[in-house]
Every structure is written in structure tokens, then in C-alpha cells.
Amino acid sequence: MKIRPDQIEGVQQEQTQRRNKAKQSDAAFGDLLNQEVARGEATASQTVAPPMIVNPLLAAGTVAEVQPVSEDGVQVADQVESILDKWDDYAATLADPEAGLKSAYGTLDEIADDVAALKAEQPDLESTHPGLKSIVDELETLTATEQFKFNRGDYA
Questions:
Q1: Which residues contact 110 (CB under 8 A, 6 or more apart)?
Q2: In whole angstroms, how large is the CA radius of gyration of the chain?
Q3: Quick check: 151 and 95 in contact, CB under 8 A?
Q4: Model confidence over 37-74: pLDDT tens digits?
Q5: Long-range Cβ contact pairs of 122-128 (< 8 A, separation 24 or more)
Q6: How far apart are the first and last CA of the chain?
Q7: CA–CA separation, 47 and 41 (whole Å)
Q8: What is the pLDDT of residues 123-150, one digit of tens each?
Q9: pTM summary value
Q10: C-alpha distances in angstroms, 133 versus 50, 118, 141, 145?
Q11: In which region does residue 46 sit, left (phi positive, over 0), alpha (psi from -120 to 50) or beta (all else)?
């Protein structure tokens, strides 16, 4: 294969154009950076008026009355809080290598029993307290998942 001079000239022109583009983009970036820095200095020199302070108590009349929570709702909330405390104990037991997996599984078993008891005691929880129902459902799912992980041997 022979290389002809007209082929070399085409490649040389292309390489020259690429070099010039690279130099132009570097210069363009530098110019853009300088413009942005100058803009930032210009806005920093301008003074901005502080925001007006509004008294939040002026709109207190528009707040709707809070309805009292029933004794049933308080009891369920306390049970959910107790279960969440047991989850904290479970996490601490898993993090402590001296505590052992038996005690962690025991805590997890207690959590599962408490969630099942709560669902059995409050079958109409969805209609009375839908927010608490979703939390109890998530606790049940999390408990089942952790039990599955334990039985699969993820923590061994």
C-alpha cells in the first residue's frame, strides 16, 4: 500500500483542527469561569434587604381544631412504641458480638408475638386508625423478613 501526499495532508489538517478545538474549548471554559466569578462578585457587592419577619401567631385562627385521641388509639400507639423499643434492643444485640445470636432471635421472636397479638386485638385498626395500621403492617413485614434472614443463615 502506498501512501500518497494528498492523503497525508487531509490527516494533518484534521489533526490541526482537533488541536485548535481543544485549545478553544480550554479558553472558552476559562472565559466562562471568569464571567461567572465576576458575576458572583457583582451580586455579592449588592445589598439584599433582609426578609420581613412575620409573626406566626397572626394566622393561628386558621388552624383547625385538633380532635382528641381515643383511649384505644393511645393504647395501640403505646404498643407500637413498645415494639419499636424492642427493635432497638434487637439491633443492639445484633451489633454486640458477645450477646449471641440466641438472645437476638429471642428478641425477634418476642417482636413477632407482640405484632401478632396487636393485630389480633385490633382487627378494625384500618378503619379506626389507618396511620397506625400502616405502621403495624410494616412492622409485621420487617419481622417476617428478619426471621427469614435469620433462618437462611445471614447472621451466622
A1: 86
A2: 34
A3: no
A4: 887 766 655 556 666 666 666 665 665 666 666 777 78
A5: 122/72, 122/76, 125/76, 128/70, 128/72, 128/73
A6: 68
A7: 12
A8: 888 888 888 888 889 999 999 999 999 8
A9: 0.55
A10: 45, 10, 12, 18
A11: beta
d(CA 113, CA 119): 10
Q: What's the 3-state SS for 81-144?
A: HHHHHHHHHHHHHHHCCCCCHHHHHHHHHHHHHHHHHHHHHCCCHHHHCHHHHHHHHHHHHHHH
DSSP 46: S
| CA-to-CA dists, residue 42 to 31, 50, 91, angstroms | 16, 18, 53
Q: How many CB atoms lie within 10 A of CB 81?
A: 10
Chain centroid, CA 60 distance in Å:
32
